[in-house]
């Protein structure tokens, strides 16, 4: 009798626990479920997550996201530090992690003027190499990296940030040596290295008409020459005042008209004041620390938080409205603690730009976004 009672008691507890866990999952829908039929929802991964140390971050990743991008470990200075030396330690771990979790894996970034390996464009005397030498180096770089992850990395930021707000080309080493041609070449090499991978051009502040028009021309040029470009990455490094929703939307529509997908890449919404307008992700911008530029060290006042929530929500509303044109939305980090915005464009600030807080808790806006997606 006692034994029976004990058994009944245990079964009862088990039923309650199962019911609770069901209620829990019912109460807490996830971002990836909400956007299942709309677009991929991704996050950039840093070393802590890739190496497995940041277990809390990884739990959030597994719960809410279905795509990952390498925040830093595939940049040329990390992955190809010397001409005859590649370093795949972290990138291999990144790809393994993505596969284990069934993520849509994105490589970032094959050709970028910043975080560029010092040897890449110059000879032993520091002089620019010839066009032919640079082409060969680009080809080897792209072939080796894309080839290594062929069939595993599903999409590549082939060229990153090559065009300026006024529509002119950035005067990078690649441009100095090869002119505009370095972009079609990079796409051609990537296409040859993995014909099935998606190929992207990625940039910030694309709501500036000059930049948008040149990117549009670039899409046309590549297509006319039979070189594939699948999507444009619109980095979403936003501030509280800029851009307007209309500006962002105009660019989504403009790219869609050219027959490519749009991806919202590198999304974060800084809550802090900007020392100057229009900085975007121009890494050369740097400002001295001032207390007034770091007003929320003890937490964010309710009214400011509400304004941030509303702006974050309105951007997701925009993405949902254009879900037929947008293939992926990727957050540039998982928690506020991870964000590059804590140090940019002023070092040592406390920013709150992402969907999960410093205690690895989801912010209230997450469920607001999910509700929006359901409507
Ligand atoms: O890993 C080193 C570490 O060994 C060293 O001790 C430390 C000292 O500062 O630096 C560490 O490297 C830093 C790296 O982030 C990893 O934390 C670099 O200094 C720092 O410059 C680098 O910043 C990254 C930045 O790109 C430049 O590569 C940011 O994390 C990353 O979020 C940011 O991402 C870019 C995108 O790739 C392109 N679009 C703009 C976006 C934001 O700038």
Properties at a glance:
alpha/beta, TIM Barrel, 8-stranded parallel β-barrel, globular
Task: Describe the fold and architecture.
The protein has an 8-stranded parallel beta barrel with strand order 1-2-3-4-5-6-7-8, surrounded by 5 helices. Helix 7 packs parallel to helix 9 and helix 12 (302-321) runs parallel beside helix 13 (364-374). The protein is built from 13 helices and 8 strands. It is globular and about 60 Å long. The protein is α/β, with parallel strands linked by helices. The protein binds ligand G3I. Ligand G3I binds at residues 71-72, 75, 115, 160, 235, 266, 281, 283, 340. Ligand G3I is lined by residues 71-72, 75, 115, 160, 235, 266, 281, 283, 340.
Largest sheet: 8 strands, parallel, barrel
The SS-based structural class is alpha/beta
Overall mean pLDDT score? Answer: 94
Q: What is the beta-strand fraction?
A: 5-15%
User: What small molecules does the structure contain?
Assistant: ligand G3I
Based on CA inertia axes, which overall geometry fits?
globular
Q: Give the N-terminus to C-terminus distance in angstroms.
A: 53 Å
Fold blueprint:
Blueprint: H1 2-27, H2 31-34, E1 40-45, H3 47-50, H4 55-64, E2 67-70, H5 76-79, H6 89-100, E3 104-112, H7 131-148, E4 155-160, H8 173-178, H9 182-193, E5 198-203, H10 209-224, E6 231-238, H11 245-257, E7 261-269, H12 302-321, E8 326-331, H13 364-374
Parallel strand pairs: 1-2, 1-8, 2-3, 3-4, 4-5, 5-6, 6-7, 7-8
This protein binds ligand G3I.
Concise summary:
This protein is of the alpha/beta class.
């Amino acid at each position: 009798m006692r034994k029976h009672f004990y058994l009944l008691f245990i079964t009862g507890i088990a039923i309650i626990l199962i019911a609770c866990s069901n209620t829990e999952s019912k109460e807490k829908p996830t971002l990836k479920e909400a956007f299942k039929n709309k677009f991929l929802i991704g996050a950039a991964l840093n070393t802590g997550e890739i190496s497995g140390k940041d277990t809390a971050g990884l739990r959030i990743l597994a719960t809410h996201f279905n795509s990952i991008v390498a925040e830093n470990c595939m940049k040329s200075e990390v992955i190809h530090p010397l001409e005859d030396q590649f370093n795949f330690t972290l990138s291999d771990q990144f790809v393994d992690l993505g596969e284990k979790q069934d993520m849509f894996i994105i490589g970032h970034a094959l050709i970028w003027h910043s975080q560029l390996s010092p040897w890449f464009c110059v000879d032993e005397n520091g002089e620019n190499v010839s066009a032919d030498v640079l082409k060969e180096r680009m080809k080897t770089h792209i072939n080796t990296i894309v080839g290594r992850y062929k069939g595993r990395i599903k999409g590549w930021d082939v060229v990153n940030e090559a065009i300026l707000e006024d529509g002119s080309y950035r005067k990078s080493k690649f441009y100095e040596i090869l002119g505009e041609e370095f972009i079609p070449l990079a796409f051609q090499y990537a296409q040859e290295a993995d014909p099935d991978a998606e190929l992207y051009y990625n940039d910030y502040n694309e709501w500036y008409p000059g930049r948008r028009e040149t990117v549009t021309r670039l899409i046309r040029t590549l297509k006319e020459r039979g070189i594939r470009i699948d999507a444009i990455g619109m980095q979403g490094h936003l501030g509280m005042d800029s851009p307007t929703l209309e500006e962002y939307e105009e660019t989504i529509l403009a790219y869609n008209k050219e027959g490519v997908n749009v991806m919202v890449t590198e999304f974060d919404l800084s809550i802090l004041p900007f020392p100057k307008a229009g900085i975007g992700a121009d890494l050369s911008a740097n400002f001295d620390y001032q207390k007034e530029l770091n007003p929320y060290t003890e937490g964010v006042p309710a009214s400011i938080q509400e304004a941030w929530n509303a702006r974050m929500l309105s951007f997701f509303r925009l993405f949902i409205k254009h879900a037929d044109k947008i293939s992926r939305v990727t957050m540039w980090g998982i928690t506020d603690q991870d964000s590059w915005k804590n140090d940019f464009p002023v070092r040592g600030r406390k920013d709150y730009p992402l969907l999960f807080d410093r205690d690895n808790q989801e912010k209230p806006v997450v469920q607001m976004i999910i509700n929006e997606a359901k409507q």
